[in-house]
Design brief:
Layout lengths: L17 H14 L18 H13 L6 E2 H7 L6 H9 L12 E2 L12 H15 L1
Parallel strand pairs: 1-2
Helix pairs in contact: 2-4, 3-4
C-alpha cells in the first residue's frame, strides 16, 4: 500500500522563511515516517475559543503517534464529559491538522467519525502511524 501524499499549495507566493522551511521539513519527515512529534510554536487566530485550545493541548499531551482516543474520552479529559460534540467541533476548526493530530480522535465505538481532510485520508494517516509503530 502506498503512503499518503496530498498537499495543497496556495495560489499566492509567500516568501520562504526559516520557520516555514522548518515546518515544511517536519511535514515531509512526518509523511516519510521519520517524525512522530512536531517542534514548532503554534499560533492560533485571535479570539480562538479557550475551550478549543484546551482540547488541542490535551490532545497533544495525551494521544501519541499511532494511538487514538474517542471524542467522549477527550471531552472527559478536559472536564467536560457531556461535550463530545463540542470536542468534534473543536476538531473541525483545528487550524493545524497533523500538528494538532485531530485525525487521532475517533468515535467511542472506534469508527473514524469526521475529518476535514476526508475520511479516506484520516484512515490512511492512522494506518501510516500504526505501521510505523510495528
Amino acid at each position: 500500500m502506498g503512503g499518503l501524499v496530498q498537499a495543497r499549495f496556495l495560489n499566492r507566493y509567500t516568501k520562504p522563511t526559516r520557520i516555514r522551511s522548518q515546518g515544511a521539513l517536519q511535514f515531509w519527515e512526518y509523511l516519510a515516517r521519520e517524525r512522530q512529534t512536531w517542534e514548532m510554536v503554534l499560533l492560533y487566530p485571535e479570539g480562538f475559543s479557550p475551550f478549543f485550545l484546551e482540547v488541542y493541548e490535551r490532545l497533544l499531551q495525551d494521544v501519541p503517534y499511532g494511538d487514538t482516543l474517542s471524542y467522549s474520552a477527550l471531552a472527559t479529559r478536559v472536564m467536560r464529559p457531556n461535550s463530545p460534540r463540542a470536542v468534534g467541533l473543536a476538531m473541525s476548526k483545528n487550524p493545524w491538522p497533523l500538528v494538532v493530530p485531530c485525525h487521532r480522535v475517533v468515535t467511542k465505538t472506534g469508527q473514524l467519525g469526521g475529518y476535514g481532510g476526508g475520511i479516506e485520508n484520516k484512515r490512511k494517516l492512522l494506518e501510516m502511524e500504526r505501521r510505523s509503530m510495528d
